[in-house]
Amino acid sequence: MGLRFLTAGESHGKRLVVILDGMPKGLPIENERVRSELKRRQGGYGRGRRMQIESDTPEFLSGVRFGKTLGSPIAVSIENEDFQSWQDAMAPFGEQTDKRAVTRPRPGHADLAGGLKYHTHELRDILERASARETAARVVVGALCKLLLQALGVRVLGHVLSIGKAKAPSKQTLSEADWQRALASEVACIDPNAETDMIEAIEQAKKDGDTLGGVAEVRVLGLVPGLGSHVQWDLKLDGGLARALMSIPAIKAVAIGEGFEAAEKKGSEVHDAIFFDKKQGFYRKTNRSGGLEGGMTTGEELIVRAFMKPIATLMNPLPSVNVRTKQPEPAEIERSDTCAVPAMCVVAEAMVAFVLADAYLQKLGGDTLGELIERLDRYKNLLEEY
Ligand SMILES: Cc1cc2nc3c(=O)[nH]c(=O)nc-3n(C[C@H](O)[C@H](O)[C@H](O)COP(=O)(O)O)c2cc1C
Q1: What pLDDT sits at residue 330?
Q2: Closest of 180, 141, 126 to residue 37, by C-alpha
Q3: pLDDT digits over 139-180, tens only?
Q4: CATH code at position 83
Q5: Ligand 1 centre and the CA of 386: distance in Å?
Q6: Cα dihedral 190, 195, 199, 204 in deg (nearest 10)
Q7: Cβ of 337 less than 6 Å from ligand 1
């Protein structure tokens, strides 16, 4: 069956809840790792005030006992500390006493399409769930999947390549020092000059009442070849990764390896020639494919990029129309981020970790971590014999 997860929760509701189903038994879980991933998502230059007043804490409700997974569904909740001030507006029962409905849809957000679809003029019914607050629950899933992948010798890392027009220089290989810099940077950037440009760009956008998007890159080290499959459309790993990344709010494009750039080049400039030596086995000198060919991992580093559009809530709002009166009015202003690319990067890592943890389970099966590792070792021996 593999892994699956569902989330529940409104942005200003009482709690977020996530259920992750299909994790093998016996995986050590460090609560601190889950906490620190949530903290990474909350941070980043350009986030709104809400992220500064809340501190996301995961509460494990099921599936983990004495620090190890049981093999049963893992349920985790995160309290919305902001709920205190939203109790009346978001009460599950009773009457709406606060009559101020959200009626001026924000261009670029889910407000109008959702209002039309659900035939409601109270757009808060839509925006509460469309809000990217939900991605905190995905980061919990990602943290758990990263722990599973770590036990299989795999690391998932991310960094920000650009914010608006401020770009970090592209690098084929990233060193441990680069990754540590990205972790320490307020914009998750490996390059100090680009970091300054990115922060300045965010400051300028904020002054202008405007917002910015950008690009994050996720790289995965230590993958075996042959994860995913070429035999059926929905088993192709590139398709699975693209879907998972595109499902993150505000992601409008995904690139695998050279992605967009490859479409402009000749085949001889794009494909990664194949070499062999006794020590390394089959290997490539370049990795323009981003570690995926035919819907399967090649054994090279996996490299994917997620492209985020600018935040839809503008402090200097675009024209809109009041859905009740049908009169032109500026779009609604909600407390909001100026730029959330660094936070999106953490969510992108989480989604990639989920897809890959699932791919390992699909390939190897097994009910316990021990079984999974045994099967992985056997597969690695087969690869060596090839
Ligand atoms: C981490 C993260 C934080 C976000 N924060 C905001 C925000 O504060 N305000 C906002 O209007 N949109 C924010 N967004 C984007 C919206 O959730 C998204 O644009 C909206 O749900 C519409 O979906 P779509 O852009 O995928 O069409 C954020 C997205 C991510 C990934």
Answers
A1: 98
A2: 141
A3: 999 999 999 999 999 999 999 999 999 999 989 999 999 999
A4: 3.60.150.10
A5: 47
A6: -130
A7: yes
